[in-house]
Amino acid sequence: MFETIDWRAVTFICASLAHEMIVHFNMPRVYYFEQEKKQLLNDVKSVKL
Fold it and tell me: What is the DSSP string of 12-32?
């Protein structure tokens, strides 16, 4: 069974999936934190001392 598996293809597919997961799962997190940071800075600027 294992002799017929093309391990180069399996490795390529796993690497491609891992790359897509890293790229697309981190983008929303970075975007969310950037938006939250901007909102926090706006809140700090709007406080009257």
Answer: HHHHHHHHHHHHHHHHHHHHH
Taken in order 11, 12, 14, 18, the sign of the CA dihedral is positive
* pTM, entire model: 0.44
What lies within 8 Å, CB to CB, of 30 at 6+ separation is none
Four-residue CA torsion sign, 33, 38, 39, 40: positive
Question: Is residue 26 scored above 70 in pLDDT?
Answer: no
Give the span between the Cα atoms of 29 and 35, in whole angstroms.
10
Provide the token pair at 32: 């969310």
CB < 8 Å & 24+ apart, contacts of 34-43: none
